[in-house]
Design a protein that fits this description.
- This protein is 37% helix and 19% strand.
- It is an alpha/beta fold and 473 residues long.
- The strands form three sheets. It has a nine-stranded mixed sheet, sandwiched between helices. The chain has a three-stranded mixed sheet with strand order 2-5-4, covered by helices on one side.
- A hairpin with a 2-residue loop joins strand 4 and strand 5.
- Helix 6 runs parallel beside helix 13.
- The longest helix is centred in the N-terminal third of the chain and has 19 residues.
Length: 473
């Protein structure tokens, strides 16, 4: 009997001690803690119910500080949540994202980076370091170099002042990159060339509508065709596992780090193709794209010296690294020496060549005039070439490559490529895109029922990964 009593006492003591463990004593549901924060600090918190889930806050009472933002940080970070300041005393709570940092963090990083290269020679050394780091982390230096592109060219169309032709390039044995080649009808002895990668744009209601996805979109066609009417050879091409690439690699494969590697490689090979065309001018080589296409723009401009002009739109930021693994899914921003890089510094690697950064007021580029552009001006000042870097900030606009953004790009390209614009300007001096024929996606496919993929076409991401592993042996 005495043993039973002792055992009961031990169990009671153990249970009491367990209940008094601090993380158990002070634990509260996230909903209750958020309600308390609103009352304590007299603020409004906005969030979706799914954020709450079954989230519990350990040591809840101890995470209340004298100011609301310190409190939110300590409450939310362990739950992989974050807050955004929406207005005075209003905060939105969202899931934590590895690719996004506070604006102030980007500003501090740029300040520290600038301090690390006070001279041109120091900056040139840093450029080389960052460029090699990107190529190394992507694994591109292991890729086979001497493979034929074997261009497949189909469905040539002639339009007002330009032509369009569908082209597939064998960028690796059995891996095909599809795109549309836009050419001036009046070629001269030397014609500038431009790459035109696309971003993650699609119909917000139905993402599957081909005419509103990727390179088939109206805005993408207009900018490429207008450049061609200005005398530029332009190649517009699919992202990895998007468009016709989707036939070889399912769309889910786009959200893997290998997509960042392949998109950079695709841009390099697309440039090989453009510069192989008769009349291509290797002294005037540009690239422009928006959003994810903007990421592709500043990365290829950073690692390929053949690029002489870069126009990334709505993407350059010191605190946002790209929301898709095809932009940030490989550790290209992490340097072995610990002095990590960001997309503003990567965009600067093209210096002192012409760089136009297009930004807007409704995404992560809203800070460009205050944070990123002054940094870029400092870099170009090292060369005494401050005039070669420009920012067009459209504060009332959003995340797109709309007409006003395209105008900024046209004017920049015209200035630095010394183009004639008589065919693309109205009598009042405004830019005229009305003569561009916007085609349905079906008109722009290289492959189809009557033109199937070649027999050696690789199918599936695992086949590609095995090929890349074998190529490193």
């Amino acid at each position: 009997m005495r043993k039973i009593v002792l055992l009961a006492v031990c169990i009671f003591v153990l249970n009491t001690m367990h209940a008094q463990e601090p993380q158990k004593t002070y634990i509260q549901p996230l909903k209750d803690v958020l309600d308390l924060i609103e009352k304590t600090y007299n603020v409004k918190l906005q969030y979706e119910d799914k954020i709450l889930k079954d989230n519990m806050v350990e040591y809840a009472g101890w995470k209340l500080f004298s100011d609301v933002e310190s409190t939110l940080q300590h409450v939310l970070m362990p739950l992989e949540l974050r807050y955004i300041v929406k207005a005075k005393d209003t905060y939105e709570i969202k899931s934590w994202e590895y690719f996004r940092k506070p604006y102030a963090e980007g500003e501090v990083q740029l300040r520290n980076l600038l301090a690390s290269y006070p001279t041109l020679s120091a900056w040139e050394a840093r450029k080389k370091e960052v460029r090699q780091n990107i190529l190394s982390k992507l694994g591109i230096h292991h890729f086979p170099k001497e493979t034929s592109l074997n261009p497949i060219r189909t469905n040539y169309r002639k339009h007002d002042g330009y032509s369009a032709e569908n082209v597939a390039l064998e960028v690796l044995p059995g891996v095909y990159l599809s795109g549309t080649l836009y050419m001036p009808l009046k070629l001269v002895k030397k014609n500038p060339v431009m790459l035109s990668p696309h971003g993650h744009f699609y119909n917000k209601i139905d993402k599957s509508i081909p005419n509103e996805r990727g390179r088939y979109r109206e805005d993408q066609q207009k900018r490429c065709a207008t450049l061609a009417r200005m005398g530029v050879m332009v190649f517009s091409y699919d992202m990895f596992a998007w468009g016709e690439s989707n036939y070889q690699f399912p769309l889910k494969d786009h959200r893997q780090g290998i997509a960042l590697t392949m998109q950079t490689w695709n841009s390099m090979r697309a440039l090989d193709f453009l510069l192989s065309l008769k009349g291509a001018d290797p002294e005037r080589v540009g690239v422009t794209g928006a959003s994810g296409g903007g990421t592709q723009t500043f990365i290829i401009a950073a690692v390929d010296d053949r690029i002489t002009l870069s126009v990334p739109a709505v993407m350059v930021s010191s605190h946002f690294y790209g929301g898709c693994p095809c932009e940030s899914g490989m550790p290209i921003h992490f340097m072995d020496n610990g002095l990590n890089t960001n997309n503003a510094e990567i965009a600067a690697l093209i210096s002192p060549k012409p760089l136009l950064v297009i930004s807007d007021g409704d995404d992560w580029t809203e800070t460009v005039p205050q944070i990123e552009f002054p940094y870029l001006q400092n870099i170009y000042s090292l060369y005494n070439k401050k005039e070669n870097v420009k920012n067009v900030h459209l504060g009332s606009e959003g995340h797109d490559y709309g007409y006003s953004k395209r105008i900024a790009m046209y004017e920049f390209v015209t200035e630095h490529f010394r183009l004639h614009t008589n065919d693309v300007l109205k009598s009042d001096g405004t830019w005229d895109e009305s003569k561009v024929t916007v085609e349905p996606a079906t008109e722009m496919y290289v492959f189809g029922t009557n033109n199937p993929f070649p027999e050696n076409a690789m199918m599936g991401i695992e086949s590609l990964k095995m090929f890349l592993i074998d190529s490193q042996k």
